[in-house]
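Figure caption, in words: inputs first, then the predicted bound structure.
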Amino acid sequence: MHEFGPPEVLRYEDVPDPVVGRGEVLLRVRSVSVNRTHCLRVRGGEYFPGLPFPHVLGVDPAGTVEAVGDGVHVWKRGDRVVVHHAIACGACEACRAGEGEYCDRQRQIGIHRWGGYAEYVSVPAQNVHPVPEGLTFPEATVVVRHAPLAFALARRAELRAGEWALVMGAAGALGGFVVQVAKLVGAHVIAAASSDERAAAARECGADIAVNYRAEDLLEAVLRVTEGRGVDVVFENVGDRALWPKSFGSLGFRGRLVTAGAHAGGRVELDLGRLYHRLQRIIASPRSSLADIERTLAESRAGRIRSVRIDRVLPLAEAAVGHRLLQERQVIGKVVLEPPAP
Ligand SMILES: [Zn+2]
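Bound structure (zinc ion present):
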């Protein structure tokens, strides 16, 4: 990218190979995914308007280790690895306390430094994790991109076995992993999606019930299923003004609503009276911890967490096509980009 703008500002061109610095790993990229906030909104200049150019997007590359910098002993050439994008500063109070997820100086691969829309990318060794056995590179990209946050959301919401959960945007990539994690915890899951096809995708992830809220009243459906009690946890990663009364209204007594996204705008009307009378909580959880990443790797090795649907895999040269498909909501699940094979 040399400028902000529509998908066509993504140019496929040659740049010098990245240099691998001390404490870094040089990756030969095999897959990277297209993300709404971290790719589309960055490209449009909405998410990080101060971004210096030229810039290379790509928060979640997976591939093989090509070289390691000084001080890196864990990885060797040829290892199959996947990158998690968050770089904690390592120096602030939260980082020193071992809580990097609360670092207020957190930086991100693909935003604060060049990312994985490339044949090669250099990343800090702390961001590199092994590809779980049995996963393809595209699957590893998708799983490590979204599942840690799903675990973080369930953790912050204190979701327990036997509870009822409502997952908004359940056909989205994050939503699909939230459904899986909620089932893993032992909760009952109602998935909400905007079409029958999207509801089917949520059911594929294990949802007990999937509601197409364009065809059926979501609140009525939730109250019917929960015998009038409402759900214990709402995973609300949509933030749609019109839909909010249905999702917030679905929250039962002592319910927790947890959010890590606002693709539909995020400005909603909150009924504080309802919130305090019913002893409810609203929790923000935009980040995952190292423990959430490790849990993701372990559960996917065990086959208990699987990739959400990958709608299509495109050559890296067609990144702009991938951006347009996601922007125009023509895909269900993920779009993955692949650089030319080595
Ligand atoms: Zn920090």
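The CA atoms of residues 241 and 268 lie 5 Å apart.
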